Amino acid sequence: MTSPAPQHRHGRGIAVMVASIVTLSSGSTVVKWGEAPGTVIAAWRLVGASLAWWVVLLVRRRRRGTPFPSKETWRAVGPAGVFFGLDLAIFFAAVNETSVAHAEFIGALTPLVLLPIAVVAFRERPNPRALPFGLVTLAGLGIVIFAGSSSGTATVRGDLMAGMAVCCWVGYLVFSRRARATVGVVDFMSTVMPIGLLFATPAAMLDAGGKLWPLDGRAWVAVAILSVTTGMVGHALIATAQRLLEVGTISVMQVAQPAAAVCWAYFVLGETIVAAQIPGMFLVIAGLVGFTVLQRRTAPAPPASLCEPADTPPNGIAAVPSAAD
Fold it and tell me: How far apart are CA 289 and CA 22, in angstroms?
């Protein structure tokens, strides 16, 4: 007879993942709700997240006597931090230029963009049976973009910026995977955030005409929410889920994040969804599920040093969070 422990563990994992999806999917809506330049909110969000992770670092040092991140750690995390900061600044700016639906579903293309890089950089073997699902995803995205072009909140400029953010996010995933081979969760997060801040701040100053201060009350609330939810809680929930669920299950569940983001935008911002976009959204989700499941079967097992990732499973291209995270 099957022990109830694994079932309870699986149920907890599902609940944790649902909470992480709800939390992380709110990010783009909160940015737009803040009614401030997205790059400025990104910079202050990185300030808040950096401070929060360094509090964790200090508490850990006091309790366990662990050292601060070494020079080698900063060097290893550096490239990932650069791409992380640029991604956050560009994506948050894109959210102000286009609809949440466009930004989130463009961001969902990350696994497809990452595929050829993973083949070259990590010698992962693509599953030929997964590639048609990638085409389904692209077709669905085309429907989402072109069917919603007359909704009034989406622009070509914003869509292109969301595409640039995807490229930066892919760079972050590649370099973070390399760094995580030798750097633990807390050290990684407490270094990647301030490094990202160094590169997000100039973009914010250019976008805001050199003015990062002061923000109005609404914008500060948005910064506080993002610092806690997407900067801390969302990633912590995913890290917890990875101890309770298989990575493949997490990968498939994360496909729902763009759809959840659209719901946030509908209820909080009043963004409308054109009826013709709905089939495209289903195609994107179905294509990503098929692509994720099939590609996951060919992904190699991770080295022992990579079994507790910081915020993204490093063993395979299928399990990657959104560029908004």
Answer: 18
CA 36 and chain centroid, separation: 21
Residue 267 DSSP one-character state: I
Instruction: Measure the CA dihedral 170/294/241/4, to 10°.
Output: 180
Domain boundary assignment for the chain: 9-306
Separation between Cα atoms, residue 242 and residue 250, nearest integer Å: 8
pTM of the entire structure? 0.81
pLDDT digits (tens, 9 = 90+) for 87-129: 999 999 999 999 999 999 998 888 888 888 877 777 777 778 8
CA distance 44 to 15: 30
pLDDT digits (tens, 9 = 90+) for 273-325: 888 888 999 999 998 888 888 876 655 544 433 334 334 433 444 445 555 56
218: left (phi over 0), alpha (psi -120 to 50) or beta: alpha
Residue whose token pair is 């100039």: 202
Tokens representing 62 are 């006091």
